[in-house]
């Protein structure tokens, strides 16, 4: 199973990061989104990231140009008709993802692997809308994608060893570290990370300490690069809430109940960095 050409669906923060690391590793990349303006924003981000590498002397102008020349953009999902792998990084909504995978199954060549960067939706359920569940797999990148080493690789119930190995090998070529995980709510990363973040929010809610103090405890006491509330704002509080809901519903265990303060912030539109306000205020 040789992977040469990759389509990334979704030019947001995750999709553009994934497209960037694929192009840097020499893959031919098509970045796809619904509107040209989304693609322009994604490509601008990629350009800025590459320029930072040039400014730091880690890449020269020719290498930057070569990476960009590996990339094309498209607003047409039909562009999947000539790729070996699709990595879907659209919004975290089962209906939208199911719709995309049903279309991809029709359009992509029979040999193509269909991967999703979902942070918590069941791979097996996404695979079930296709006629090739054995070729559907989770590739969960971490934010910021160009910096974070981990890719959690999630096998759906039907994913074959051959497909798993092809994706594992590709992940290594991206200069990332693959970790194999089975398909259960939140996988490993978010099953452990999100309850910690939710507990930090309960700690604010119950007046145990201010957000700054909670983050300081975890940064200085546990050597975390960011405190849990800064991290929640970075991930997006809407994403944190939806992952807690997947855990709560998926396990039916009240230990995963989302904190009421998290719900309140999301209802208020305080979604973290992207809206300028979450547990902290941003310019
Ligand atoms: N895109 C690209 N590069 C970035 C970046 C971005 N958004 N943000 C920072 N960087 C780069 C910087 O350019 C810098 O690069 P060099 O070392 O080459 O100079 C490097 O990252 C370090 O950045 P800074 O010195 O500015 O800041 P820092 O040391 O605080 O590191 C951080 C920033 C890497 C984000 C660090 O704070 C960190 O690791 N935070 C935790 C991130 C984390 O936990 N991510 C996982 C979130 S959960 C998730 O993604 C999964 C999910 O499903 C929700």
From TrEMBL:
GO terms for biological process: butyrate metabolic process. Coiled coil: none annotated. NAD(+) binds at residues 10-15, 33, 92, 97, 119, 143, 274. Pfam families: 3HCDH, 3HCDH_N. Pathway: Lipid metabolism; butanoate metabolism. It comes from the Bacteria. The record marks 140 as: Important for catalytic activity. Residues 186-282 form the 3-hydroxyacyl-CoA dehydrogenase C-terminal domain. GO terms for molecular function: NAD+ binding; oxidoreductase activity, acting on the CH-OH group of donors, NAD or NADP as acceptor. Residues 5-183 form the 3-hydroxyacyl-CoA dehydrogenase NAD binding domain. InterPro entries: 3-OHacyl-CoA_DH, 3-OHacyl-CoA_DH_CS, 3-OHacyl-CoA_DH_NAD-bd, 3HC_DH_C, 6-PGluconate_DH-like_C_sf, 6PGD_dom2, NAD(P)-bd_dom_sf. Keywords: NAD, Oxidoreductase. Belongs to the 3-hydroxyacyl-CoA dehydrogenase family. NCBIfam families: PRK05808.1, PRK07530.1, PRK07819.1. This is 3-hydroxybutyryl-CoA dehydrogenase. It comes from Bacillus solimangrovi.
